[in-house]
Amino acid sequence: MSIQEKAGIDPRGPRFGAAITSVLLLITVFLGLDRNTQDAGFILLAFIDALFLIGAVLGNSRHPYGVIFKKFVRPRLAAPKELEDPRPPQFAQTVGFFVASLGLATQAFGFEYGVALFGGLAFIAAFLNAVFAFCLGCQIWLGLRRIGVIRG
Prior knowledge:
By secondary structure, the chain is mostly helical. It has one domain. The protein contains seven helices and no strands. The radius of gyration is 16 Å and the shape is globular.
């Protein structure tokens, strides 16, 4: 974790990334629903899954969307009113990685609509974050911390 992340991250950064991710996931769902485009949906979900993995391992500030946000979007905005703990959004990326991986695995093992189903579930979470600032993965992190599964 970088020194900047220890101080906190701009909460608008993960929402920016969630907006991009939700658009990509919506496209993935539509591709995954048609037998003629399922392979393209699988490839797009694999790309999104790789992005989730980057966010889960490196954190939001080093995620490609985080870099774009810091370089091009954040300089045009007023300073955030408060900073956010980077751990819940990073955990949310891990949850996204897990859900997208399930979509890839189920499709690879013959479940015809695996990409559409799990892409749809990931879309719902990304959409909630982008539009309503409700991070489902962050809420899971907070619940696990509250019951003592996560320390810190």
